[in-house]
Design goal:
Class_I_gatase-like, alpha/beta, globular, INH-QAR, four-stranded parallel β-sheet, Transcriptional regulator, DJ-1/PfpI
Length: 87
């Protein structure tokens, strides 16, 4: 099982999170359970993050919490990426 971490931040683009997440979810349907993917949502400073479309998403953990080992880290895009403030 591989762990895929997706880093979200305030004002992120929902499609940049949900598209890759669905790709790994569909892949899991065709892979043996021990060869699949486990998804983890990470936020920078809080666990409740609002996307650019206004939908709130609850992250599993923050980057400040003790890290587990991730096989892949995806960083989403969106208007919040260009705000000039830390994520």
């Amino acid at each position: 099982m591989k762990t895929v971490a997706i880093l979200i931040f305030p004002d992120f683009l929902m499609l940049d999170m949900s598209g890759p997440a669905e790709t790994f979810t569909v892949a899991n349907r065709f892979l043996p359970a021990d060869a699949g993917y486990r998804l983890v949502l990470i936020s920078a400073t809080q666990t409740d993050i609002r996307a650019s479309n206004g939908i709130r998403v609850l992250a599993d953990t923050t980057i400040a919490e003790p890290a587990e080992s991730y096989d892949l880290l995806l960083v989403v895009g969106g208007p919040g990426a260009y705000s000039g403030r830390p994520p």
